[in-house]
Amino acid sequence: MKHNPFFFGRVLVLGGAVLTGLLAILSLHQPGQAAPAPRPVSGAASATPGPSPTPTGATIALAVVGAPAGAWTDVQWQDGLGQWHDVNGWQAALDPTGQRLWWVGNSMLGQNGLFRWVVTLGQGGPVWATSLVFHLPATPGYVAWQNIYGPDTPAAPVVPPAATATVPPANLGTTLPSSPAGTYVVQPGDNLYGIALRFQTTVGALLAQNGLSGSLIFPGQVLVIPGGNSAGAAAPANTPAPAASPAGPASPAHGIYVVQRGDTLYGIALRYGTTVAAIQAANQLYGSLIFVGQTLIIP
Questions:
Q1: Which of 29, 51, 175, 251 satisfies CB 3.0 to 4.6 Å to 242 for a cystine?
Q2: Local structure of 248: helix, strand or coil
């Protein structure tokens, strides 16, 4: 058998072509090589935002007793000249419970200066009451309460005719007779102002006559009455005691009132056309607590 050189050449050419094709296919697919990651879009966020931080700060709060319908509240601050100005954004009506709260941010905690609440009769209306002055809280989470128990100036009371105290005609225009100094034994509930009214003298005269340096007296103490009669444990016969009618207790516009069941300082102030603060000052009271049978001076 003879060798055909053309046959072997064709076989070699064909084998080379097949080998080249296989190498090309293998180069297109290489197992184990990961595909390249896609490039991020330009300007896309690089992180997912977390939850919003919890707000911190403090609170100022107001509670009003007896506020009229439609009452409006306003928070004011005082400048260096003593003038008051509204705090921007801290104006709103009282809620149905008579309260109003405002949140104080961290940047305002402990801020110097005086503030106050003002209650008006409707938005922009006349002032009905003002609170005591206060400072903004300095501690996060603190609630600073202010209380208002009634109007700054109570309205003049309308007293029914039956509740008006009267003085017997026989005593009109009478005065205590001039006589040597008498004495009076202090009773529970007495004070110098009431005793001075009863014997038509002054607190200053009682202090001077008895060598007192203050207004403190106690039951059983014997006081010398300047220019008066000796009264013992009772008032002079020609000095009318406070009278009460079936419609309710009453006493002179400037005199003594005996506390009845259900009374409050605010109600008594309304009845006699004065203020709670004036009654507290005249009776040396440091709060609003009173009790049945207590004797109050009505200034």
A1: 251
A2: strand
**Domain 161-298 fold:** Membrane-bound Lytic Murein Transglycosylase D; Chain A (3.10.350)
Taking only the tens place, the pLDDT of each residue in 12-70 is 656 666 666 666 665 555 555 544 544 444 443 343 444 545 557 899 999 998 888 89
Query: Tokens 């603060």 label which residue?
Result: 277
State the Cα–Cα distance between residues 30 and 258, nearest whole angstrom: 108
Enumerate the β-bridge partners of residue 258: 295
CATH code: domain 58-148 is: 2.60.40.1120
pTM: 0.37
Which pairs from 284-293 meet CB under 8 Å and 24+ separation?
284/191, 284/215, 288/149, 288/264, 290/259, 290/263, 290/264, 290/265, 291/259, 292/259, 292/260, 292/261, 292/263, 293/189, 293/258, 293/259
The residues pairing with 72 across neighbouring beta strands, listed in sequence order, are 93, 120
Alpha carbons 154 and 267: distance in angstroms, whole number: 9
Please say whether the beta carbons of 258 and 190 come within 8 A: no
State the Cα–Cα distance between residues 132 and 117, nearest whole angstrom. Answer: 8
